[in-house]
Amino acid sequence: MTTALSRRHLLTAALATGAAVPLGVARGAAAAPGQARITLPKPTGPYRVGTVALHLVDRSRRRELMASIWYPAARDTRRHPVAPWMPDASWHALVAAIGMATDAAAPLTAGRVGAPVLRSRDRFPVVLYSHGNGSCRAETTIVVQELTSHGYVVVTVDHTDDGFSEFPDGRVTVPTENSFTPWDYARDMTFVLDRLEDLAAGRNPDAEHRPLPAGLGAALDLRRIGMFGWSKGATSTALVMNVDRRVRAGIGFDGEMQSQPPVTGIDRPFLVMSAEFPRATEESVARFWSLLRGWRLNLQACGAAHGSYNDQQWLIPQLAELTDLSDEELAGWVGTLKPSRAVRIQQAYPLAFFDLHLRHRGHLLDGPSPAFPEVHFIP
C-alpha cells in the first residue's frame, strides 16, 4: 500500500525540474462556475483571524523565503479578502504533483488578508511552523488558525526548493533535486526569528517593504516563543531548540528525528505526537526521547497515518471524492482515524501544549481524556 510519505518522496523526485517554474497567478480567485471548492473546518476560538505574507531575503545564504504571519484580528474584517489555503498557481502545482487530477479550487481559510490587528493590553505569544519534506507552509492551516483564534501569533515558513511556494513576482517554486536537510530547515527558521525581532522593533522585514497591518510588530511577545513542525519539520523544530534558546517549547508531529549532526538534548518542554514513526520501531525517535531533559510527553492517536496531524487528513478525502483515488490509496494517506476526530485532536492538543508552557494554564495534558479516547499517552 502506498503511504503518504513514500508518495511524497516519489513526487519530489518527479518534480525535480528546477528551482522556479513560471505559472499564471490568480490570487484568491473565486471558484469558477461549476468548479468544486473543498473546505476547511472553522477554528473554535473567540478571535477573528488576520494574515499577511512576507517575502524574506537571507543575503548571507543567497536564499529567499516566503512566510505568513497569522494574528488575532479586530472584529471588523469584512472589507479584507479571505485568504486561500494557497494561491491558485501553487495550489494546482501541488495537487497535480500528488496525483490528484482535479481542477477543484483551493480551500478558503478563516484568515482575512491584511485585517487590522486586534488591540490588546498584552502582547500575543508567538509560534513558528516548519513544514514537511516536499510540502508547503499551508499544510497545518487547521492548527495554525486554531491557535490564532485563541490569541497566538503564528508564523509559517516555506522552505524554498523543498516545497511549493509562490513569490510576489509570480514565480512558483517546486521541490528540486537539491538535498535539503533538517539543518537547512533550522537555519531558515532562525533567520525568520531574527526578522521577527526586526518587526517587533518597528522595522519592516519584507523585501519589497509592502505595507503591514498597523501594530503587527507591537503585538508580538518574543519572550514567549514556541515552535512545531511535521515530519522533517519536526526534526527542524528540535534542531532549532538545540541552537536557539529563544524557542521555549516545541512539538514534533511524527518526525523521524534523523539529522547529521544529530539532535542533542533539550531542557525545555517537548511534545512528540507519533503515528507511523513511534519510539517502539523508530530508533532515532527513541534516542531523541532519551535526550529530553525537560518536560516531555509522547502521544499517539489510534489509527493515525503520517499525515493525520495536518490538513491532508481533512483535505485528501474531499479530493478523493473528485478523483479516481482508490480506497487503498486513500487509506495510505489518512489511515483509519476519522477526519472529524483528527481535526478535533489537531485543534485541542497543540493548543493545550502551548497554553500550558507559554501561558501556564490548562489540564488536558495531565492524562488521558474521555473526550479523546483515540489519544494514548505513551509512557
Short structural description:
This protein is α/β, with parallel strands linked by helices and 379 residues long.
Task: Jot down its keywords.
11-stranded mixed beta sheet; alpha/beta; 379 residues; Rossmann fold; 22% strand; 9 helices; 3-stranded antiparallel beta sheet; disordered N terminus
Q: What report would you give on this structure?
A:
The chain is 29% helix and 22% strand. The protein is built from 9 helices and 14 strands. The strands form 2 sheets. The protein has an 11-stranded mixed beta sheet, sandwiched between helices. It has a 3-stranded antiparallel beta sheet with strand order 1-9-8, with no helix packed on it. The radius of gyration is 19 Å and the shape is globular. InterPro entries: AB_hydrolase_fold (IPR029058), TAT_signal (IPR006311). Pfam families: PAF-AH_p_II (PF03403). GO terms for molecular function: 1-alkyl-2-acetylglycerophosphocholine esterase activity. This is Lipase.
